[in-house]
Amino acid sequence: MSAIPLSEAQRTEIKQAAAILQSGGLLAFPTETVYGLGADADDEAAVRAIFAAKGRPADHPVIVHLAQTQDLTQWATEIPDQAWKLAEEFWPGPLTLILPRSLRVKDVVTGGLPTVGLRVPSHPVAQAILREFRGAIAAPSANRFGRVSPTRAEHVRAEFGDSLPLIIDGGDCEVGLESTIVDCSGSLPVILRPGAITQEQIELVCGLPLGSPDANATRCSGRLESHYAPLALVEIVEPQDIPSRAAHLLSQGRKVAVLGPPNDLLPAETDLIFLGTDAASQAHELYAALRKVDDLGCDIALISPPAPLGLGAALLDRLQKAAGTRVPKTK
Ligand code: TXA
Ligand code: MG
User: pTM (2 decimals)?
Assistant: First the structure.
């Protein structure tokens, strides 16, 4: 858990948050990955209200957030050694484990699936709410269905306006991409969604290569095409081709953003948004940048593909989803 002390104002908000959860309400809160839209995981009506607020289909399961690893046995059964090892190594932190659900888990949480997604977040505010509330929090990302996840409190306000009773501002989310999801309900652990905990790290802890995702596992909305999409088109372009592609699009009257480093070859009319040089800062900045692209009224954002190693694999995954199927394939 982070050692950052909570301010007096935050402590008041945390008490308010616990009261809201106890009375069946919703609130937005920070985690180390993205902001979550939370409700009491034991309260069926409250969890239903999350789906209504997000406009999310009822068959998309939500993650249950726990205060500590010991709580796992209340929410999951048949927990394999691999899952305990991963929990011990990476919790609290940006990892979600999919496990066979216990009797405590309501159907509304899992969309009727026999498994449940569980995670112990490390963000001090998320931890403090969980401990004050003394329950578990069902929470998807705090965005409307299919939109970019929020990494700042102002993004949540942009999504939901004043319709939520409480949005706790915990600053920028440290990671900036959603948690790594590892399905531990089968014979081999499988990564369903890459994130800050990388395949290499997971393999090292498990001591075996991971299985490949089942083509039928479409219930994980993070795996649907064209998820996490901004309004603008996103196009993944090799770095050397970005200036000419930008010039071509501008000549067609399109408003173009480039998410990348300054480049003298770029046309002056391009809106440049620099995400930083390493994968960690690019992950941290990506969703804020995609929102900015829309705020600037750009029609299209060009970005070069990150190397698909470590956190780069998660970045590439989100970029491909943001690009979806809408990207013109030709230059
Ligand atoms: O970092 C995160 O995971 C954030 C923060 C708020 O914790 N949450 C998040 O939740 O990204 P959401 O609902 O936006 O994405 C959770 C993903 C969905 O794609 C959902 O389908 C998948 O987890 N999921 C949840 N339970 C599952 C299950 N039992 N089997 C397969 N996928 C599951
Ligand atoms: Mg989401």
Answer: 0.94
Give yes or no for a cis peptide into 92 (omega within 30° of 0).
yes
What's the whole-number average pLDDT of the chain?
A: 92
CB 180 within 8 A of CB 197: yes
Q: Buried b vs exposed e over 68-94: b needs ≥16 C-beta within 10 Å?
A: eeebbeebbeebbebbebbbeebbbbb
Q: 268-275 — which CB contacts under 8 Å span 24+ positions?
A: 270/246, 271/296, 271/298
Please write the tens of the pLDDT for every residue from 28-60: 999 999 999 999 999 999 999 999 999 988 889
Ligand 1 binding pocket, CB closer than 6 Å: 31, 33-34, 36, 60-63, 96, 98, 110, 113, 115-117, 119, 139-141, 178-179, 181, 192, 219-222
Tokens representing 132 are 């004050």
User: Cα of 308 to ligand 1 centre, how many Å?
Assistant: 22
Token code pair at residue 231:
């309004």
Q: Which of 305, 321, 330, 312 is nearest to 240 (CA)?
A: 305
Contacts of 175 (CB under 8 A, 6+ apart): 32, 33, 34, 94, 195, 196, 283, 284
